[in-house]
Amino acid sequence: MSSKRQALRADVQEGIQNRLVQGNWRPGARLSIDGLARELEVSPTPVREALVALEHSGLIEYQALKGFVVAPPLTPQQIDELIDARLVLELAAFTRAFGRREALESDLRAAHEAHSAIAERIAAAPEPDYALIHEYFDADSAFHEALFRHAGNHYLGTMREVLNTHGHRMRQTWSEGAERIDADEAVAEHAAILEKVQEHNHDGALRALRSHLEGVRERSIELGTGPTGR
Amino acid sequence: MSSKRQALRADVQEGIQNRLVQGNWRPGARLSIDGLARELEVSPTPVREALVALEHSGLIEYQALKGFVVAPPLTPQQIDELIDARLVLELAAFTRAFGRREALESDLRAAHEAHSAIAERIAAAPEPDYALIHEYFDADSAFHEALFRHAGNHYLGTMREVLNTHGHRMRQTWSEGAERIDADEAVAEHAAILEKVQEHNHDGALRALRSHLEGVRERSIELGTGPTGR
DNA sequence: GTGCCCCGGATCCTCTAGGATCCGGGGCAC
DNA sequence: GTGCCCCGGATCCTAGAGGATCCGGGGCAC
């Protein structure tokens, strides 16, 4: 541990964030600084720093003299606002990225192939595989990330990352009961976007992207309010 | 100091942020943890936490085993991207806020009056008054903030805050030489927006807002590249 | 039985200590 | 004179200690 100094805070932060995203702790659970330090076999100081750095992601909240707690799940209202904000960002990013249509098309196609491949593996799996679902979310996210990579605006990408973290928070809630993912619909909608891009059809692709996000909104709120009847 | 525990980290953070925004340290300057701790008469631990929390604002950067340094000034390219991102956010926020036109108009008018009042005081002042300039920036910012207050989307507001911090970083650079502010132009452009809102003219106001931000872009880049000849 | 008070453990917050690392300057070899 | 090496001070990073605060449970008064 002496050779890899200051991998500590980064490692601790990554470890905690992974557990948060995977839903190891329920919303409202207290994240004891001393407890985490014992568990990770480090001193409390780097744990505190990691939690402070994670606070702005929205995954955890801080209360003075009481510590950090896992943020409560998103309400349907918040999910609605989150997708709405994504719409604003992604439509803008798409239009800017369309200026480099060829590079964009190339990246979108690659991301789409990876995405649909994982979707097929999920469909073939007999029962939910959490690691696979995690991969699926990453692949899905990569498709959208491609829009920002070519948008030529660093700040749009930064804002996407902020929203993406909240998206993790949303999916974290689902993992508790509803593992069913409408992978097919998302893949089909991505395919529609890609197709329009290949046809040099900017406005059509924009409509397809908007339509896709509307679909995400509906499916998310449906899962949020819950098929379990809540 | 025993009664107001855990005002410490917040106080330290606020103090450091104020100094950063006011440009007390030049870009590239090292922020010594121990030094700040001695200066603020606290131990290094809360200083570390405050710096970690400030890192995501973009005002400071972190390098392992070397510490924190004041972020370099924005390049004209970055300024361009920053304003472009503001355009995306503010146009979207405006359209959403126009749904509650009356409340929006009320807030915009109040913000505009405060803004123009300060602009007059600046014009009347014989020489640059830093405190007054600071107030001016806040008043200017408040006008735009009103758009988001009525947009009904929490995430748009969050993203605005992120961009706003980078805006501070931009203005921080100016303060070094060019105190001249084109307050009149900004006030006139705000007035144009307000006028269209009062006329129930959504599209006209949108154009005025876009035009205003284009003006901000031009004036910012002009200041960024510098009348000093840099 | 109900409600209030007290108390002990757990936790947080801050501080101090000490090893590890970085950085700049003087000295030496060539 | 130039370049390299070494070294001392400053700083960073982590650990651990100690006082302050919170929280839950038992006991007592009514």
TrEMBL record, chains A, B:
Organism of provenance: Brachybacterium halotolerans
Q: Where in this chain does the record put each HTH gntR-type domain?
A: 6-73
Q: Which keywords are on file for this protein? A: DNA-binding, Transcription, Transcription regulation
* Protein's recorded name: GntR family transcriptional regulator
* Pfam families registered for this protein in UniProt: FCD, GntR
**UniProt keyword Transcription regulation, yes or no:** yes
Record flagged with keyword DNA-binding: yes
Q: Per its UniProt record, what InterPro entries does this chain match?
A: GntR_C (IPR011711), TF_FadR/GntR_C (IPR008920), Tscrpt_reg_HTH_GntR (IPR000524), WH-like_DNA-bd_sf (IPR036388), WH_DNA-bd_sf (IPR036390)
